[in-house]
């Protein structure tokens, strides 16, 4: 494999919706901090060659020590302070990449169940020239409402997806898109446009269409207190060998 792939891992959020004194990324899942599960997935991958981690300001040394203690520092290139918004953290991480890099896998560390098959499928897609994002077809009917909660439309469920991470892009393309976003962030805010993920950045800033790649319904995002017992159950299921496939 000639290409070098950098995993840009995001663990800089405040985790307010978890309503705990400890930041969400440091809560234990299976006996270790939540963010380490994503570091491990990238560390064992034969596709990922380099890893950077974005953390809350001032937490870099703490996170680095946890990574080293877990024996996961082999690919680690650096731990950097994130920004006030997710896209600022991504932009800072992209600017920190000073080594050869063909593709960037941008992943939220709040998703601890990233599997190696998903990484492989994403890599195969992006190396064919197609930026892509992990996700799964929606099982539920999606309803568009107005500001008061009244139904406006119901899109065809066959074309709706649950968007996940990683989201994968050619390095120079996504770095340029984020540079443009940083320059235009104030204007977008005035227009009421809220950036939610990197696929949206790619589309708005470079006109790039991002392909959805099927991942797993287990690739959940741990966001609220209710998610923790679900994550523990999924982890126990995986360790027992009962959880197989993408369903």
SSE diagram, text form:
Blueprint: E1 5-10, E2 28-29, E3 32-33, H1 34-44, E4 50-55, H2 60-69, E5 76-81, H3 86-96, E6 103-108, H4 116-126, E7 132-137, E8 144-145, E9 151-153, E10 161-170, H5 171-190, H6 198-206, E11 211-214, H7 227-240
TL;DR?
The protein is 35% helix and 21% strand. With 247 residues, the protein is an alpha/beta fold. The strands form 3 sheets. Strands 5-4-1-6-10-7-11 form a 7-stranded mixed β-sheet, sandwiched between helices. A two-stranded antiparallel ribbon has the order 2-3.
Give a written overview of the molecule:
This protein is α/β, with parallel strands linked by helices and 247 residues long. The chain has helices spanning 34-44, 60-69, 86-96, 116-126, 171-190, 198-206, 227-240, and strands at 5-10, 28-29, 32-33, 50-55, 76-81, 103-108, 132-137, 144-145, 151-153, 161-170, 211-214. The chain has a seven-stranded mixed sheet with strand order 5-4-1-6-10-7-11, sandwiched between helices. It has a two-stranded antiparallel ribbon with strand order 2-3. Strands 8-9 form a two-stranded antiparallel sheet.
